Amino acid sequence: MGLPVVGMVGGGQLSRMTHQAAIAMGLSLRVLADATHDSAALVAQGVNVGSHTSLDDLTAFAQGCEVVTFDHEHVPGDLLRQLEAKGLNIQPGSAALVHAQDKQVMRERLRDLGVAVPPFAVVTTAEELSDFGAAHGWPVVLKAATGGYDGKGVWIVASVADAVDVLGSGVRLVAEQFVPLKRELAAVVARSPYGQAAAWPVVQTVQQDGICVEVIAPAPGLSTKLAIQAQSLALKLAADLGVVGVLAVELFETDEGLLVNELAMRPHNSGHWTIEGSRTSQFEQHLRAVLDYPLGATTLTARTVVMANLLGGVSPEDATDLDRRLHLLYARDPALKVHLYGKEIRPGRKIGHVTALGEDVGETRARARTGADYLRSGKWPS
Amino acid sequence: MGLPVVGMVGGGQLSRMTHQAAIAMGLSLRVLADATHDSAALVAQGVNVGSHTSLDDLTAFAQGCEVVTFDHEHVPGDLLRQLEAKGLNIQPGSAALVHAQDKQVMRERLRDLGVAVPPFAVVTTAEELSDFGAAHGWPVVLKAATGGYDGKGVWIVASVADAVDVLGSGVRLVAEQFVPLKRELAAVVARSPYGQAAAWPVVQTVQQDGICVEVIAPAPGLSTKLAIQAQSLALKLAADLGVVGVLAVELFETDEGLLVNELAMRPHNSGHWTIEGSRTSQFEQHLRAVLDYPLGATTLTARTVVMANLLGGVSPEDATDLDRRLHLLYARDPALKVHLYGKEIRPGRKIGHVTALGEDVGETRARARTGADYLRSGKWPS
Q1: Which spans in A41-186 are helix H?
Q2: Residue extents of the structural domains in chain A
Q3: Mind listing the pLDDT tens digit for each residue in A47-59?
Q4: For the whole prediction, is pTM greater than 0.95?
Q5: Under an 8 A CB cutoff, do A320 and B352 touch?
Q6: Most exposed among A87, A94, B85, B262, judged by the fewest C-beta atoms under 10 Å?
Q7: Residues of A in contact with B352 (CB under 8 A)
């Protein structure tokens, strides 16, 4: 039908769910996956197996696509720039994406833009860390400037002694104040090359051990003032950084207001609820944005939407009993939406998510949590 | 993850949309397609190219699947019975499916079950047709007992002279009264092997030249009595005929009540609105049913949902201008949901559909029609 071809680098669940959205748009997502058993490679028709750190693999992949986008931030910036120099259409572009790839670059740029961020400093020595702790209090949060995800690459250290190993590891580190926060929020928006942007309601995210376990949309009890502030901030960042596609801005809500924690420039875990919870899902919106289509409506389809991540359980039975548990969960809650990523079950690994839609926040949260906990453990909450 | 493998015979848009639903369920639909450019073959990972009339192709395909289901009714019944005799799990089974494959068998069975159907008779000669017309009035509707779809295999004849060609064609024919109807409705339900069943609200379907062009959910102004009667009828037929999966019952609403027109035992055009319009789409529900999972909630997500089929336009430009039209349509109506099937554009061919959700029936219909008409013709309604 003469419709464009979109390539996504990375074969994880974000590609998998983007492929779902692509199907409705008449497209077939092409995926550059590490292996044929990757989450998206199991369901997409056009799969290249190759490395996202190989210029040859990236170039061969990109040349068949009108636009190339990403399900992770791990393609090295110099390769992105080389692809762009060849005239290939990479969205978001390397100049924007670096702010989701490098926490030092992001922190410095946001500070320069006047955006509130936690106090931070690049630390390379014990003395610098000691000074930072003395100035901003202990514990201190140390983050690898690049490569971290899901709590990996983050260390909360109570003293310099605590940080000896990580300081000696050769990893470039950003130290940040351990912010006393009330809760975490996320403002998710999308922006097209044309410059159109659209925001979903601000959500609350609940983390455990550095992993997002629950997202509540809209964030309960958030004042209109803070909600508008968070959305405006995300829209401003999308424009200032030249983001194309989905931008997720992870925020700390503190007594002093909002601080930016992290940026992601792709469909994001804090937006999975939009599949059923919004008239346009983040996956469809990401495709519209990178293809420079006008963006879709972000209206909610229910008063409250709660997504709970499904993490792999720890017992051997947890890895083999999923189908039986699905039967029982479907019977108990016929309106719960279960998403499975086709990934091998390993303890703590994100293998899917469940979404509940409802009127009452407490009840909807309980339904989502019950679903995710039961699928993980095989036990109903007491 | 130890989840079952589902195979679907036929590579059309119904398989394509079922694959979308399968992705969320952690599954990857396997498709038996006629060709690699079939609608579903463009987007699914596991595609067998083969013939649905070849026992060898069907057997090879089915042996890799926990259950085999269908996106059309064209697999010959004797092949289905041979597959069943091999112990393969075919859903719906041949004994149910014959009622969607053979209009004579269907009419006779429904009559025996006491279900209201239009007056009908098998006609093989001009004399039999003449007698039928004399008894039930002209015009008479002649239907090929097997193989018809989208108005193909249906002839409305004003006299015996009109029917000379079709009577001489060797096609087995069922004659039916040309029923004076108020409108057409459809009752779509699903049933699992366990015997659980679920119904969506009864919809109104609008046909042009024998092709469904619009579906309105719920059917506007339908009395509660008739709605319940239609749903009960569909649920009873699903149980009596032993249907597994989605059953669509096409109905005539007449001054004397409801008459059954056709049956389909698969996801059906009259249920496409459920993708966004119901908490559980007909595609997810069909998968749940054939896998004997408990069924999902059929709650609506909006007061009114209207689906308009997108038919291929007639001018050469219609086949090349779709992407530009999509840009303009997305800009005009950001909440409209467009589904494209990846099919080559030919005049009158179903190449996609659009769904509008809203409060007011008239306004929602206008949005859906505007979207479908514009994508087809490149002209906004005046």
Answers
A1: 55-63, 77-85, 94-101, 103-112, 126-136, 164-167
A2: 6-90, 119-177, 183-377
A3: 999 999 999 999 9
A4: yes
A5: no
A6: A87
A7: 26
